[in-house]
Specification:
Distance between the termini: 69 Å
Radius of gyration: 21 Å
Low-confidence stretches: 300-308
Shape: globular
């Protein structure tokens, strides 16, 4: 096997482990905050917590650098599947470190989620710099804007539902937590391409405008995305929240590839892998979501009992 390929695979695996380890540290820090203190000054407490900040560093800096380096050596086709292997670290850590209890169906759900992501990765969908030449096309920009708008609406809708309901709260918050990153994935490659054009001397009005707009947009969307994920962690188990959030993030690129860039399947079997991968991810999401829903019902039943016991003690 080519040494550069091995290096690229190693970097992608390391990126997935860093990302999921960061999420694990953040959830650990959140669990240490007393339940009665989570509603007031929640994010201020997190920003003062060294473990949470270390988790943030692993997710944004360490994982980001490793992913970009891996893409340099092996391209984008294998990256999602290799990154998903990091969920194994999250699962083990959730049980051993966070003390989360998991049943057989939940392990099956996470295994299916990893398998689905790997299948999508092996479908070899890839958007290259050559595809960026349509950035100035009017119809492309309309499709691009509509897709961004749809993802944004789905994000706000899932978040608002999660805020308002008691049963299914964590499922909606977890599902919605990935939409900001799905939006960021849509904008990231065009922004990098335009930035490269600017640095090579092509300082057109379009490139300057698009770069400034996308840079500000991505900065804001990532900040709110991090906040949303912490809110989901506050209400649910990391072993369910993080995998559930993978659904929009993994299926979104399929729509981007076929519906926005209007590309055709690179391989004769790509479409079959995509369909199988998407169905597998949805089944995994159903298994994890159903279990999280059961846990929330148990919490709703136990909360009045805890309050009654507390009043009796007083």
């Amino acid at each position: 096997m080519d040494k550069l390929l091995i290096l690229g695979i190693f970097l992608a695996l390391a990126g997935g482990i860093a990302n999921n380890s960061g999420a694990l540290l953040q959830k650990y820090a959140i669990n240490k905050i007393p339940k009665e203190e989570k509603e007031k000054g929640f994010f201020k407490k997190l920003l003062k917590n060294p473990l949470w900040l270390l988790g943030l560093f692993l997710i944004i800096v360490a994982s980001g650098v490793l992913q970009m380096a891996a893409q340099w050596y092996i391209g984008g086709a294998l990256i999602p599947g290799l990154l998903a292997i990091g969920m194994i670290v999250l699962t083990i850590g959730a049980v051993k470190i966070l003390g989360e209890k998991m049943k057989l169906l939940e392990y099956l759900g996470i295994a299916l989620m990893i398998g689905g992501v790997v299948m999508i990765g092996f479908s070899s969908l890839e958007i290259t710099d050559e595809d960026m030449t349509i950035l100035t096309d009017k119809m492309f920009l309309i499709r691009f804007g509509i897709f961004t708008g749809v993802l944004f609406i789905l994000w706000i809708t899932s978040r608002q539902i999660g805020k308002r309901v008691e049963r299914g709260k964590t499922v909606f918050l977890a599902f919605g937590s990935s939409f900001p990153y799905a939006i960021a994935n849509v904008w990231m490659q065009p922004m990098i391409f335009v930035a490269t054009e600017l640095f090579t001397g092509n300082a057109s009005a379009f490139n300057i405008t698009f770069f400034i707009l996308s840079l500000g947009f991505l900065g804001v969307i990532n900040i709110f995305g991090i906040a949303h994920l912490q809110d989901a962690f506050k209400h649910g188990d990391a072993s369910k929240v993080y995998p559930l959030g993978q659904i929009p993030q993994q299926i979104g690129p399929i729509v981007l590839y076929y519906g926005i860039y209007l590309k055709t399947s690179p391989l004769s079997y790509s479409i079959y892998l995509l369909i199988a991968g998407a169905i597998t991810i949805l089944i995994a999401g159903f298994l994890l979501g159903a279990r999280q829903g059961q846990l929330e019902i148990m919490d709703l039943i136990e909360s009045p009992k805890e309050l009654e016991n507390s009043n009796d003690e007083k």
